[in-house]
């Protein structure tokens, strides 16, 4: 990868096929997502539109001419009491891990979400052995708030969900406007 810089930008329609390919690999071979059937490009485009319709960011990271990863924030839960809490999702293309792509994406995502009305960001990390994602989130100010043991079953084994959380903006220190 050399000394190429990582550029984070808003995703565009032309990125959907790249995003779908990145996510499909994670769905079919990894434990970060508990989905077991990879959604097609039309479904990814619909998900992207849904996120953007809420005023939330969907970002891609480029390294050279390649889409090296993507990240987005969505509502943590849809019930109104959770309206100030977001969940982050970060996925990196195979062959690009360990080069700061995930960090660049998550940093940009946190920065963008901190300018909005949201007050908390939650990470729901598939697999308690996912030390890379846990470490990334910890590095960017998330703290471990719990683990649900063996709540998923994928690729022939039980999988934990690790919950991490960080404040956005004033967090819970002031009332929302």
Textual characterization of the structure:
- This protein is α+β, with helices and mostly antiparallel strands and 177 residues long.
- Helices cover 28% and strands 33% of the residues.
- The longest helix has 14 residues.
- The protein is globular.
Portion of residues within helices = 25-40%
Determine the number of helices (DSSP H or I, runs of at least 4 residues): 4
Secondary-structure element string: EHHEEEHEHEE
Computed structural class = alpha+beta
How many strand segments? 7
Strand-residue proportion? 25-35%
Instruction: Give the strand order, joined by hyphens, for the main sheet.
Output: 1-2-3-4-5-7-6
Largest sheet: 7 strands, mixed
Mean pLDDT: 96
| Rg over C-alpha atoms, rounded to the nearest angstrom | 16 Å
Low-pLDDT stretches: none
Distance from first to last alpha carbon: 45 Å
Shape: globular
């Amino acid at each position: 990868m050399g000394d190429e810089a990582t550029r984070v930008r808003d995703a565009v329609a032309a990125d959907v096929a790249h995003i779908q390919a990145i996510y499909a690999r994670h769905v079919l071979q990894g434990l970060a997502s508990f989905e077991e059937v990879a959604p097609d490009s039309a479904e990814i485009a619909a998900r992207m539109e849904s996120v953007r319709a809420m005023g939330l960011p969907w970002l891609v990271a480029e390294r050279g001419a390649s889409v090296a990863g993507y990240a987005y924030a969505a509502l943590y839960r849809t019930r109104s009491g959770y309206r100030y809490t977001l969940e982050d999702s970060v996925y990196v293309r195979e062959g690009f891990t360990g080069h700061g792509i995930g960090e660049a994406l998550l940093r940009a995502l946190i920065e963008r979400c901190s300018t909005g009305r949201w007050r908390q960001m939650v990470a729901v990390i598939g697999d308690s052995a996912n030390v890379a994602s846990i470490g990334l989130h910890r590095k960017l100010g998330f703290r471990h708030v719990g683990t649900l043991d063996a709540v998923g079953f994928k690729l022939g084994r039980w999988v934990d969900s690790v919950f991490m959380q960080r404040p956005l903006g004033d967090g819970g220190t002031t009332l929302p406007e």
